[in-house]
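Quick start: read one record
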Amino acid sequence: MKAFRVTREFPLALRLLLINQFGIDIGFYILVPFLAAYLGQELGMSDALVGLVLGVRNLGQQGLFLLGGSAADRLGPRAVIIAGCALRTLGFSLFAFGTTLPVVLGASLLNGLAAGLFYPSARAYVALEAGDRKAEAFALLNVYATIGSLIGLLLGSVLIRADFRICAVAAAAVYALLTVAQAMVIPERPAPAADRSTVLGDWLEVFGNRRFLLFSLATTGMFTVENQLCLLLPAGAKQASGWEGAAGVLLGAGAAVNLFQMPITRALERHGGGSRWVGGGLVLMGLGFVPPLLICADGPPDGLREVVPRMTIMLIGSLLLFVGTMIAHPAVLEMIPRFGRETLAGTYFGLFYVFAGLTAAGGNAVVGWTMDMGKQYECPWLPWIGCVAFGLSSALAVTLLYRTRLLPDRPEVSAVEGTVIPSGLPERGGAVAAEASSGPAGPTAGSVGRWEAGLLGRTRLPSPGRATDEAREKPPR
């Protein structure tokens, strides 16, 4: 498959991180989807206690995203990734051998802290290692994560028939292997030694980046809508088919479509870059909830003659959601480290995931509330309309940021087709303008030297640079 062929084009460290993401999602989905049922049915916990256990995991995760990102910036991402996997190994092991509320709470907290460590640090490592191919690298990360999650779900569905503890042991074993493998093979990438300030100073710099904060708020709808693969769409598929496992059909179709991630990402890069198409991807994600509106008020299906057309409608909606995610998600991740200094990539990812996690939790609460209201007042279309509104409003916000040039410049420089200059000449529009403003000077020794050095590699003329309020913070490329 093309995705696996493209993987070989990247450096060894990046290939190992992709395999790491694959393993992380296998281990996670072997256990976590079955955790709530285990706590309520086998341990006899009330709904309130189940919610407390799951909430502690989310709290630990959100609380450590920013710290995990800062640690990656200061200690190097490799050590933080390894520490996160080791913590999750311990957390899943506690689920296997502990049945009391304090032990289960501790296990849940450890798992949340682990995610807070390795998610921003792994994304920062990918961003730093991928160079100007960040969009493709994050697209591949999406492919490996999707395949890993499906394999994990399949394994978990088989193992849960025996015992939940077997699921927990299997998940802990996956993370233990990842911890050892990462310590042995992932190369060290030291934190950049530039402009080292305090952690508080780094946080103030990131929180003071208005463009980044606006972007993080604008993309909140993406995570709300994306999370409906675990809430609203499974409920809609069950209602459409009368079958508990109908959500697996939607997920399987999404996994098949996800194999086309790389052609989609490369096509977008050839036509203006992912940042130009994020709004369009979000529109597709929102429109994915329109087809289910056609059947959401229908009663239980009467045989295959009703199940097939209803599930076809649900498949169309879910595929729109998956394709929109494939367009928007890699481009969003690719832009995050370009909002500020390269030395703060981990901190930027950490804060972004804080926004994403809080949004996912709050958005799910709103969607769940509209589902209850829809049943109570006989308006089943309410949650679907709400998700359409989430997607389209987020698309509008991101499009406004793009049109007002508040999104970061593309890493590649563009040019009039067929016109080239030596690569030794300045790449930034601002730099070219600065030299031009000095007057019509002849070729100096320095410029001739740069011209001759550039004959070995050629690059395109720069496009006009975008004026931004954080331009001085961008690292030279």
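The first strand starts at residue 420 and ends at 422.
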